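Subject: sequence -> structure tokens, single chain

Hey, anyone have a minute? Need the predicted structure for the following. Not urgent.
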Amino acid sequence: MNEKIVYTGRIGFEPENITRKHDNQASWKKIAMVFLGGEVSDYYAWFLNKRFSLVLNKPLRGSHISFINDSNRDLMQNGRTLEQVNQCWNTVKAKWDGIEIPIMLNLNPRFDKTHWWLNVDHDYRDRLHGIRSELGLGKPYYGLHMSLGYANEKTLAHHEYITRNIINGLIP
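Reply:
Had a minute. Here:
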């Protein structure tokens, strides 16, 4: 399946701290996301449940694409000071925060040992990579994607069974 769909998302810099991890990292990390609103990730997770009886824990921030999740140290490349980084961050934030942008998702779900996601189509990555570039950042380590959810201890064995059978070609 190589189907795609376009959604409109809103760029959000420095989202509210709603996790302990984010709270612990907020002093040394910069974060920006595209929020898709609604229950887009739940909708596609429902298909995984329907097809494979696979129940996933929802992403805590709902339907979103993290496109900046980098430490201040990463932003301080080329000898920039923290003050220069923060000044650049504030300039880029003022330019992009709250802007709506189209995001095309590839509807072929991807997975690893515990997580499922939909990739952002390559034609729609350029704007987000451009914002990263304005901050002096390269492409993110993990490609741009929207998380659908993750397996927990109760569902991990079933998750591993399903993904192993997909990898081995036993489930198309």
